[in-house]
Amino acid sequence: MKISARNVIKGTIVDVHKGATTSHVRIDVGGGTIVMASITNEAVDDLGLVKGMAASAVIKATDVMVMVS
């Protein structure tokens, strides 16, 4: 997959907390650093995000998205 964003940080999902419409996904990117993304519950389901899964934080301007490959 190609993406225009240049800030892609690989890591491991350590927590997925679903709210009413939005989920908070925490990704351990190493060195004790956790990146958190707020994404829709639908996106979590579509991507099949679960704790322990490899994922990447994709950072563009002020947004953090989640990518799996």
UniProtKB/TrEMBL annotation:
Gene3D superfamilies: 2.40.50.100. It comes from the Bacteria. The keyword Isomerase does not apply. Keywords: Molybdenum. GO terms for biological process: molybdate ion transport. InterPro entries: Mo/tungstate-bd_C_term_dom, Mop_domain, Transp-assoc_OB_typ1. Residues 2-68 form the Mop domain. The keyword Disulfide bond does not apply. Pfam families: TOBE (PF03459). This is Molybdenum-pterin binding domain-containing protein.
